[in-house]
Design goal:
1 helix; mainly beta
Length: 172
């Protein structure tokens, strides 16, 4: 059995996020700080990604003052508690076909996640993409959640947010 390790190239990897609310959606990016992907006989078997929560950006809010206010709110304890938890971690625990199971840790809280991934290896370069749907309330992000607050009307923020992950890694 041939084991190959690929180191994440952070400058060529990113996560696009989408958060939805009654009146629309917001989107942005967050950086993959570092990590590795492990293949055995050409098949994905493991890996770990470290996400830099302090790198979160909002792309759809163009007014600088509003964007800064929103970014500050995402950094606060209402959402990611970035000062206290500057990193989130995704660790792959098992793979079946193209379905990946893993543990996602945000704000020191770990929950299992499952998602489909597409992986391509060309010589010593690996590219991978996957889409995760995360319930933010599992990670103590309850701000304007209908599960915890009544009569929010059009200020309600949906619990699930999307992470569209795209990584490039080079053989170690």
């Amino acid at each position: 059995m041939k084991t190959q390790k690929f180191e994440i190239v952070s400058t060529q990897s990113n996560i696009d996020w989408v958060g939805k609310k009654v009146t629309g959606a917001h989107n942005g990016t967050i950086a993959v700080k570092e990590g590795e992907i492990v293949l055995n006989d050409g098949k994905l078997t493991g890996g770990k990604f470290i996400i830099d929560t302090g790198s979160i950006k909002i792309l759809d809010v163009t007014d600088p003052a509003t964007n800064a206010q929103f970014a500050g709110h995402l950094a606060s304890d209402d959402f990611f508690s970035i000062e206290k938890y500057p990193e989130a971690i995704l660790e792959i625990t098992s793979v079946s076909g193209n379905h990946v199971e893993g543990n996602l840790t945000i704000k020191g809280i770990t929950h299992p996640v499952g998602f489909d991934a597409a992986i391509n290896v060309n010589s010593d370069v690996l590219t991978a993409t996957g889409k995760l749907l995360i319930d933010r309330t599992k990670y103590e992000m309850k701000f304007r959640s209908g599960n915890f607050f009544k009569d929010l009307g059009d200020t309600l923020i949906y619990n699930d947010f999307e992470l569209n992950v795209s990584v490039t890694a080079k053989a170690a």
